[in-house]
Amino acid sequence: MITYANELLLLILLVISKVYCGTRCATAVGTVHCRINSTMAMDVEVFLMDDDGIGNPDDQMGWNTADENGRFKVEGCGYDFLSDPDPFVKIFTYCNSPKGKYIKTKVVHIFAPDIIDYGDIDLD
């Protein structure tokens, strides 16, 4: 049985969730390099991720691939309750790794319209 107090509490929680939710968009650019074999820098998968901390899987905000020169631009939006997303880039590569590996960048709190520029990223 829903009482007036329960309805009021539910309404307050819904309002708070709308007020304290952080949906933000980010764009990240950079250039990946594989010193051992430069062709392994093209077409690598680049994921824009939201770091959600220990025990909570990271959320994917966006995805793209690097071009023939290793340049990438990936953009997307993330959502966190009570805070802004914590964007970082995760790159999957076979550079110097026959089974493939992921490389993660640091979290950078820069949001649109500004751009996160990771510069040169060494995949070796």
Automatic annotation (TrEMBL):
InterPro entries: Transthyretin-like (IPR001534), Transthyretin-like_sf (IPR038479). Transmembrane segments: none annotated. Pfam families: TTR-52. GO terms for cellular component: cell surface. Residues 1-21 form the signal peptide. Keywords: Signal. Belongs to the nematode transthyretin-like family. This is Transthyretin-like family protein. It comes from Romanomermis culicivorax (Nematode worm).
